[in-house]
Amino acid sequence: MSTATAFPIDLDAFQPLPLDPSSVTLTDEQRETLEANIQLCRDAIVFFTAVGGARGVGGHTGGAYDTVPEVMIAYSFMLHAKEGGQPGVVPIFFDEAGHRVATQYLMAALEGELDYERLLHYREFDAHLPGHPERNFTPGVKISSGRLGHMWPYANGVAMANPDSVVFLLGSDGSQMEGNDAEAARLAVSENLNIKLLVDDNDVTIAGHPSNYMKGYDVAATLQGHGLDVNTGKGEDLDDLYSRMCAAVTSEGPVALINKRPMAPGIEGIEGSTHGHDVIPTDAALTYLKGRGLDEAVAFLESVEKGPSQPKYRGSGDMGKNRSLFGKIVNELLDGMSEEDRVASVRVFDNDLEGSCGLDSIRKEHPEVFVRGGIMERGNFSAAAGFGYEEGKQGIYATFSAFLEMIISEVTMARMNYSNVLCHFSHSGCDQMADNSCHFGINSLFADGGIEELDEHHPTRLYFPADQHQLRSCLNKIFFDPGLRFLFSNRAPVPDLLDEDGNLIYGDGYEFVAGKDDVIREGTAGYVVSFGETVYRALDAVIGLKEEGLDVGLINKSTLNIYDEAMMAKLAKAPFVMVAEGYNVKTGLGSRFGSQLLKRGFTGKYDYIGVHREGSGGLWQQMGYQGLDPEGIARSVKELVG
Ligand SMILES: Cc1ncc(C[n+]2csc(CCOP(=O)(O)OP(=O)(O)O)c2C)c(N)n1
After folding, report:
1. Which positions fall inside the Transketolase-like pyrimidine-binding domain (predicted)?
2. Superfamily for domain range 318-641
3. Nearest-angstrom CA–CA distance, 300 and 288
């Protein structure tokens, strides 16, 4: 974390403004104060999220910026309640779109729980300001959020536990696509919960404008259909927003205020565009801050340097970005089919993450098989599985590995229906996950929960190639296989694995064989077993250990759920085996591999390392924080060897 400097926007200018919602009209003075607070907060959000962007740790600007007016009014009601005014209000900004975490950090700072200067370290490694809010992790942050569709149902329970108070839920048109929200709406209505939704209906999600890609989707009509009291208005009309919020708060039961506005109103260059969803580009932020006359903030932003980049590792070559490559390789395979065949036998389901999972290239090259599914992981997975109901047809499905946890039940039913699905789960593990713990994809072996006998009839396979060449060969090999195929990749690029002579291990002539483990380095002292982004780090560790005289070998286990009997026989004779992985130590490969070795007569020493700590923010540093960088892996090997 870089050293503290004073926050260059005067946050002390913020004026706490308790407002009594029984007065539905703002006085001129109240309006002036409210407007000044809104402007100040929007300036601060643009500034410190842009600092994160300039440092290379990313972030989100538009969503938090959008919702400032309703956050400010809700805060005024909270202050009024705190002074004993009615109605009571739970003083927490439940936000179902956790990427708008800038709101949480800013409010924590304004409430005096977080030094203003800390905001300059948004999303930095070890700064405790990760990409999504985590309760008890950042001072003043009272909720954990980040998986869309998970917060409204939760806030319903909070409303039940606080029957005398209003609960605010910041909503978004993206979150509202999740099926969970439909369930939450029904419960809120049937139990007449005193929950007030403030939905930022900006018609922007990651992959586009819902009004374009999700025809028929209408947040207000949907919620009305569930029986909510719904009121639609313009989010940027402050007097109107205020009186609508007063009416919502002073009436009993659930109310949804749908606040229409373009994404990032007033920010030149990103207003109304999907680019507003992510972190604001530095030049757009500079234009904005200059326009606001915030010279110190401009000077600070201009001085920000990119964070340290990842070190180079021994045994590693050129970098490949497997998550993007996925779409390109699928395109090549689709190119090899007639259009008629493609349309009849393949359907590709996006979950609004498109480019992040490499699906953008498929949409561009093969729109005829592409479904822009919106943010509906469970339903889209089942649709992909249903498309692959018949032999010779398959659904292709992609999202982040973290959200694999959401679809386990759907996977079970797909398996029992003998479906054919190729699933690409990108952003596995914790590498480069500034989004932090809620976005860690570490429980992926849950996908292997089928009953053994059923698996024999209809396979479930989990593959995690270690570099771009292995991915290419793997995908070509498994594309037309029946069953459920889970293919994992990382957010971070991975380098090519090299042999002792500096040649590609998975270069020309390599052919992927499902279920076969590969020796990356031979060793007499024992073996590290690894996969994915951990292999090249383990390779560096193994090279170093050999140099120190400990002849450790390395195995790449790219098929996660088949035991390669030849390799298991070899490992069963080894003096030690240590699994090093980017998955959860509680549920990962290491938690089962030792039993498999024992079954095969292993008498050596065994250990396994993986993700075991709450995330630390930042990028590649996440791996070292978990003890999964070369130093950490080498240390664990030495501890095991004794
Ligand atoms: C369950 C889940 N699926 C997908 C994502 C990835 N994701 C983060 S934000 C986002 C789009 C959100 O759109 P919206 O909530 O309307 O936010 P805005 O664009 O207005 O900031 C997606 C798909 C996620 N965080 N959680």
Report:
1. 320-494
2. Thiamin diphosphate (ThDP)-binding fold, Pyr/PP domains (3.40.50.970)
3. 14
Under 8 Å between Cβ of 388 and 421? yes
Say which residues have a Cβ less than 8 Å from residue 470's Cβ, sequence separation at least 6. Answer: 497, 506, 510, 512, 556, 558
One-letter identity of residue 466: A
Spacing, Cα 135 to ligand 1 middle (Å): 20
Kindly list the distances between the CA atom of residue 303 and the CA atoms of 5, 95, 238, 297, in Å, as whole numbers in the listed order. Answer: 12, 32, 35, 10
Q: For residue 257, how many other CB atoms are within 10 A of its CB?
A: 23
Q: Which residues pair with 235 in a beta bridge?
A: none
- Contact yes or no for 583/610 (Cβ under 8 A): yes
Q: What is the pLDDT of residues 92-144, one digit of tens each?
A: 999 999 999 999 999 999 999 999 999 999 999 999 999 999 999 999 999 99
Cα(232) to ligand 1 centroid in Å equals 22
Q: Is the CB of 435 under 6 A from ligand 1?
A: no
Residue 133, preceding peptide bond in cis (omega within 30° of 0): no
Neighbours of 473 (CB within 10 A): 18
Beta-carbon contacts of 212 under 8 Å, excluding residues fewer than 6 positions away, are: none
- The whole-number average pLDDT for the span 429-458 is 95
CA 611 to ligand 1 centroid distance, Å: 25
Q: Are 153 and 183 in contact (CB under 8 A)?
A: yes
The residue nearest atom 11 of ligand 1, judged by CA position, is: 205
Looking only at the bridges linking them, the beta strands covering 229-234 and 195-201 are unpaired
Q: Would the pTM of this model clear 0.85, i.e. be above it?
A: yes
**Quick one: which H or E segment has residue 543?**
helix 533-547
Ligand 1 pocket test: which of 68, 99, 426 has the largest number of ligand atoms within 8 Å of its C-beta? 99
Angle between helices 468-478 and 322-335 (to 10 degrees): 40
Atom of ligand 1 nearest to the CA of 403: 1
Domain boundaries, the chain: 14-265+274-303, 318-641
Ligand 1 contact, 203 CB (< 6 A): no
Say whether 278 sits in a helix, a strand or coil: coil
What CA–CA distance (Å, rounded) separates 327 from 123? 29
Residue 319 token pair: 């970098």
Q: Quick one: which of 261, 227, 233 has its CA closest to 246?
A: 233
pLDDT (mean) for 430-453:
97
| Cα of 178 from ligand 1 centre, angstroms | 10
Cα angle 41, 47, 51; round to 5: 145
Cβ of 62 below 6 Å from ligand 1: yes
Q: Whose CA is nearest to atom 8 of ligand 1?
A: 99
Structure tokens at 446: 């849950």
Q: How far is the CA of 335 from the centre of ligand 1 (A)?
A: 31
How does pLDDT run across 370-420, given as a tens digit for each residue?
Answer: 999 999 999 999 999 999 999 999 999 999 999 999 999 999 999 999 999
Domains 14-265+274-303 and 318-641 share a fold: yes
Q: What is the pLDDT of residue 1?
A: 46
Domain 14-265+274-303, CATH: 3.40.50.970
The model's confidence at residue 456, banded by pLDDT at 50, 70 and 90, is: confident
